[in-house]
Amino acid sequence: MGRPNDEVAELFQEFADLLSITGEAAYKVRAYEKAARSIAGYAEDVSTLDLKGLRRIPNVGEAIAKKILDYRETGTIRQLEAVRAKIPAGVRALTAIPTLGPKKALVLYEDLGISSVDELAEAIPAGRLEGLKGFGAKTEENILRGIELMRRAGDRVLIDVAMEVAEEIVAALSPLARRCEYAGSLRRSRETIGDVDILAAAADSGPLMETFAALPLVAEVIAHGDTKTSIRTVKGLQVDLRVVPPESWGAALQYFTGSKAHNVRTREIAVRAGLKLSEYGLFDVESGDLIVSATEEEVYERLGLPWVPPTLREDGGEIEAALRGELPRLVRLEDLRGDLHSHTDLTDGIAPLEDMVAAAAAQGWEYFAITDHAPNLFMQRMTDEKMLAQREAVHALGERHPDLTLLHGTELNIDADGEVDWPEEFLSGFDLCVASVHSLFTQDRDTMTRRIVRAVENPGVHVLGHPTARLIGRREPVDCDWDAVFESCARHHTVVEIDAFPDRLDLPADLIRRALRYGVKFSIDSDAHATGHLANLRYGVGTAQRGWLTPDDVVNTWPLDRLRDYLGTG
Ligand code: DGT
Ligand code: CA
Ligand code: CA
Ligand code: ZN
After folding, report:
1. DSSP letter string over 489-545?
2. Does ligand 1 have an atom closer than 6 angstroms to the CB of 185?
3. For ion ligand 3, residues whose CB falls within 5 Å
4. Helix-hairpin-helix DNA-binding motif class domain location, by residue (predicted)?
5. Do residues 505 and 515 lie in contact, with contact meaning Cβ atoms separated by under 8 Å?
6. How far apart are CA 524 and CA 438, in angstroms?
7. pLDDT value at position 98?
8. Predicted local confidence at residue 314, as pLDDT
9. Which protein residue has the closest C-alpha to ligand 1 atom 27?
10. pLDDT score for 1
11. Taking the model in full, what pTM does it have?
12. Is the shortest distance between the CB of 182 and ligand 1 below 6 Å?
């Protein structure tokens, strides 16, 4: 089950969506949205707080705190049930389309009787929306893009959603097993996960299968057997548990980690060596004997290969590199010495500066950059005065954290032409500037390329933030000549960010590998808007590994002096 905070946050987000359908005032809708974000990002567990404790959560007042208590007592919120009852399920189905707002969904339902995504996907090309107020060609195109995005995402979930489930199951089963780990795409750190594969080693599978099928997160048992049991969680995610004898652990873990393409290659190598590799183990073909393979290292060794890190197992050249003894020493979470992108409640973060800095200090880092949004993201209401006051506060706070160097930075907005919020003179007052695209995502390729390259060339810009601006399952990456951008980044020493937020993971792994060829340097950043978000860095590291990055490629594994030298800010 999700963290109680996430569950409550989802309810308030839904409440906000439904209220906007019923025509509730915008400020009220926003209040619930803000509360949802605050609750999701709040460090303390809402299920343990009393009314007073709840009211200390930013953006949570008396009324919302009471609704949380109501939820805890009854498992639901009365006001939410009331609006749910007012809004037809058909409208709610339509609002699942990322590019269709609740108001337009209601119009489609009321005026045309459209009540499902499939129906809408047919109605648009059939011209049924023509003449409907507020639905021009551009809107139609947008909706179709949203449907396409949604269909492509299919039933896959973001990596953090799958990880939470996997870790809960591994923790529950480990006491009953010799070994227990998650395998499949999750172990390879793919950006989205189809289903979770859990592998356990035990002499007797019975108790493991029983415990698994009875876990509180199970909504449905799909198949129950001695070697494999599959369940569906309350959130609809499928989890397969396989139990193997301890002597097959290494071969089974290798098999179920995949990818299929990587396994095809390892099996071929086995065949050439007179061996047979399957989920049951590694066998000598002639004698039929099981070659004991308690670890993956042993399996790879018998194949004449060094152990291949799971994040490389995509048949993307890792077998060849392994045979040549040239696998990269991949960057790890422990290598990070700091974070170059974070927000506070001065803009859209939910934690005050002091809390963000304390959380960074607790990581044992050497440096930490605070990079709140610059003024052109108008909703955030930044001003020069606020920014300079924050700088003072950062300097003062720095004295309380002698082991942590605080960098006062900002996240600039790359405007339509590649300009950023402030002139060079003001920019030079910052220790570190991230610049990102936050608007006009659909510019054509040439315009977008010129726009981003211009920002990259700006001497006041140090990091290109979430470069493709994609939101997984919700917004396409911008169209851009990435070779031109990467070439420029390498030349101007502009660092390319790998934003670790699970719905961004931006730059994606395939583009990381492309950028690497230009000698680009990267930063793995949390883009944290709450203290808990620092934990997302693990997904940024996973993505960096899938891009074959070593610590030398990642600037925030470097000592601060080297980083400053590279950026020319020393
Ligand atoms: P997913 O679940 O779509 O995110 O991706 P995976 O890679 O977790 O795929 P999944 O769950 O179908 O299978 C887990 C692993 O088991 C897969 O990476 C490799 C192995 N595997 C499953 N079926 C086959 C198969 O038919 N042939 C081979 N060689 N390996 C398989
Ligand atoms: Ca899987
Ligand atoms: Ca599976
Ligand atoms: Zn941003």
Report:
1. HHHHTPEEEEE--TTT-BS-HHHHHHHHTTT--EEEE--BSSGGGGGGHHHHHHHHH
2. yes
3. 195, 197, 240
4. 52-71, 92-111, 127-146
5. no
6. 19
7. 81
8. 98
9. 260
10. 41
11. 0.88
12. no
